[in-house]
Amino acid sequence: MPPTLPHLIWLADAPLPKPLPPHLRQLLTRLAPAPRCEAAADAPEAAHEQALARLLGLSGPAARPAPWAALHAHALGLGGAGTSAWAWLSLCHWQVGMDHVFMHDPGALALGAAEAQALGAAIEPLLAGDGLRMHPLPVSGPADPPAGVSPLWRSVLDAVRPRGTLWLVEGEALRGRAFASVARAAGADVRPWLP
Questions:
Q1: Most CB contacts within 10 A, which of 29, 30, 56, 68?
Q2: 3-state SS class at 154
């Protein structure tokens, strides 16, 4: 993998600052626009996640998201990172109505470390019954990968890692399963991704 990515991914709904900062203006003059990446309404990843996966050579069929959680496990040096199936488990708030199942932004829950630890302890036996193992992560902010992880991979993981209370989950029950990313589901009706 190249040490740097000569790309800038700009979310369409994010306005450009006015006036443009001098460094950003200079960078934009050096870049050529690439085709716009739009996610289908039922795609499991947000457009920026799809674009990043494509740039890193991780994209596959549209219905199969990139293996972000497995890459995160590898970056953290967890045992089984190269052979196990992985997923992120994110605590979230769903609002269920007659005609919708809306997922609120998990970062808005703002659980403290003690609350997250107690919740994880309550969830862990349920997952273990299905052969799944939990790996706790920091409650907020990016995880600190080992020193050997490049700045590029640190920034990639920070761009795709869900915010809020989060665990890495490992187990064969996850193999071959495609889940919607938190970035895709947050603030949306999650019915397209329910089993």
A1: 68
A2: helix
Token readout for 166 is: 């989060």
Please tell me the distance from the alpha carbon of residue 72 to that of residue 21, in angstroms, as a whole number: 33
pLDDT surpassing 50 at residue 1 = no
Count Cβ neighbours within 10 Å for each residue of 102-111 and write b for 16 or more, e otherwise: bbebbbebeb
pTM of the model: 0.74
**What's the CA gap between 184 and 50, in Å, rounded?**
11
What's the CA gap between 97 and 99, in Å, rounded?
5
d(CA 156, CA 4): 11
Cβ burial, residue 50 (10 Å; 0-12/13-18/19+): buried
**125-157 pLDDT tens trace:** 999 999 999 998 754 444 455 556 677 777 777
CB 23 within 8 A of CB 78: no
Would you state the pLDDT for residue 95?
93
Count CB atoms within 10 A of the CB of residue 139: 18
CB 146 within 8 A of CB 77: yes
- The secondary element (H helix, E strand) that includes residue 167 is strand 166-170
The strand pairing partners of 168, in sequence order, are 88, 135
